[in-house]
Design goal:
There is one protein chain. The chain is α/β, with parallel strands linked by helices. Among the domains are: about 190 residues, P-loop containing nucleotide triphosphate hydrolases (Rossmann fold, 3-Layer(aba) Sandwich), CATH 3.40.50; about 150 residues, no CATH class. The chain is built from 20 helices and 15 strands. The strands form 3 sheets. Strands 2-1-4-5-6-7 form a 6-stranded antiparallel beta sheet. A 6-stranded mixed beta sheet has the order 8-12-13-3-14-15, sandwiched between helices. The chain is elongated, with a radius of gyration of 44 Å.
Amino acid sequence: MLSNLYIENIAVIEKTNIDFSDGFNVMTGETGAGKSIVIDSINAVLGQRTGKQIIRNGCSSAFVSATFTDVSKFVEKKALTLGFEVEDGMVILQREMSSSGKNTCRINSRPATVSALKELSAYLVNIHGQSDNAELMSPSLHLHYIDALAQNAKLLSEYRAVYNEYVLAKEEIEGANDDEAQRLSQIDLLRYQIDELIDADIKVGETDALNIEKTTLLNSDKITKSLLKSKSILDGDDDIDGVINMTDDAFSSLSTASRYQESLTDLSDRLYNALYELKDISDLISDAVSDIESDPYRLEQIEERLDLLYRLSRKYGATEEEMLGFLESAQEKLKELEDYDVNREKLRERFEALNKEALKKAKELSQIRHKVAEDFASQVQKEMAFLEMPNVRLVVDFTDTELSKTGTDKVEFLISVNLGEDPKPVTKIASGGELSRMMLAIKTVLARHDIVETMIFDEIDTGISGSAAQKVGMKLKEVSRDRQVMCVTHQAQIAALADSHFLINKQFVDNKTFTEVQKLDFDGRVHELARIIDGVNITQTALDHAKKLIENA
């Protein structure tokens, strides 16, 4: 159950610490006192979407902490799957919201995400507000209640997994049937691209090699002249000795000296090696001169080849690797398109198998729903009769549909509130008070099968008064025997039944608004119920009536 709620800098609440009890907890206060802010704070710490406008004016951040004690094994197991340990049956959810939009969340003091808060809190708290009544006005949501009572979550999840695959297969088949002309056009294009690339016979590194060869051919005269000059310096001519002859003379002299001084032998050997290295270089220069081409036709061939590679690179990829990759991909795509009939048949077989499986699971869902619907209607009618609607008749109307994400059932609640009237859609005949009581009746029925241990009702008594309001209070009290119930109410008959009564009060100090939450003792409860009954000017009669309501409860 929710044992403690700490709120800091949320709207007009500066700081408040609320210790809730088990059983039936009621919150009352004048309109605008801040009752909705408490609910907004709970929603925030449960991971619901909220904005920075919730932060108190002038503050940079807001903080909410909710402590749950004696949590169920289901909650402990869910916490573990999310990566959080539960000790002594306690779960503490915390959320800090900054004006910059940043959220800091924790579960049992460990960092968490907003989605983790939301996922875990689904096992901790159910909040039912006035907006829930709108669900009854939307027939598309009625099926949700039948599935909840039938506990169809697992089967529905299995069905949706198959249905989603079925939808994808259907889209593939429809797309395949609609684009035959496009397929043939794509085949022609791919064949042209493949032939063009194969004919080009592209080699990796070819462009770089051709550019090097092109540079050599363009500068062949300069290269030849430089090589010949270098060789002339090495070999000499008729007028001067070359470097090789001069080195040979130097070696002969040094070799002679080394005969008489042994320490010069190493120098002589080194010069000998240098002489033969120079001779080898001279020979290689001669080979290089012989290898140089000045063939203008070869240069023309290189230019044409580079131009082809450039044009292909603009269409198929900047490098040879990318162009060859395009070729491989195009060949695979062409094979796939040419094997179209085989692939389409396989796709159709898969589609038919998925359709059969989806229909099978949809039928299982439908059978369970029809079985549960009658019991659901009977239980809800019984609860509504207790809530001062004795002549109500509820019918769960089924209509067969095509496969959808919920199966093949369309469900709508039909209701008759007066004897002799045929049931009609809820949207056409139910008043605000009737919707509130119908929603409470449905929530009461579903609560018997719900593992959540805390239920919060935000002004569930809208549109009702008198004995109907008292019956609503009695029903909430009954539900609180098996789980913790919290209720925001404006009805004295409901508040009188509380096990714990909290007053939400707004005050003005130094031109600032502050909301405080106070747990009332017996006298405080009498005074608050009298205020609800009588308004601003509380009479003794109202006080006596309030006291009697509490004592009778």
